[in-house]
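Continuing the series of single-chain predictions for the mutant panel. This is the parent chain; the variants come on the following pages.
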Amino acid sequence: MFNRYESLRWGLSTLGCPQCNLPQAMALADSYGIEFLEIRTLNGTVNCQETLYLPENKEVMQQIAAAGRCRVLDSSFGITADKPGQREALVEIARTADDFNIPYIRIFGGGNYGEALSDERLKTAEANLKWFKAQKFQAELALETHDICSSAVSCMQLQEACGCHLPIIWDAHHTRQIAGEEFADSFQLLVKNIVSVHFKDSRYAYAGEERYCDYVLIGEGLVPMDELFTLLEQNKVQVPITLEHEKFWRKNLPELEVMLDSWQSFCTKK
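Parent structure:
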């Protein structure tokens, strides 16, 4: 399928097929030759710490985890935030990750892009990381470049303040289209931390005076996908390069198969 970038190892987030159970999501990935599955939604909900134990999902989850095909289980935890109940929710997700030998739990920055990483937020992040380490789960937290940490610069600032190595899920769309960083600059800062890469394409749109990213088919937006994939290939990156189709959150987006076809078409162009 992806003959322009033969060395890259592709992944798919279940965010793009939220109504699927795990066997259906895995069959879809297999039909496109996709190696990895990142778990965000199943059976119409983000509560995968529950749905993964359904009989229809549990055995398949055990199989793909044993084969190394699931590296990330997603959470909504904000590392710089102190929200009631979020630690308890993260514990449930961490137990699930350990049950299935999933090595990473995706977390967010919390807050909003453009907001400063204040001393208070940095102290909260440090406290959250120390608390999680003390729980002694096998799974590690992996910070996705979202929210207040949408830039590679802010992720490294957070790591330095917390004094520990911080695995990173590089949402290459967000560092470029939201934070304004060039791919090469973000990659140089994050390369030693990256455990997964997310990609998608978009154009800018406006709601009144507010600008936002309107997601589109791969190759039809402003994101230079070839530049990203070539950068990853030239640097022999072997972590999952994962399509994150926001269908669960944005119901107006096309079905995942349409997005996958656009990706396939882009990757097979000469």
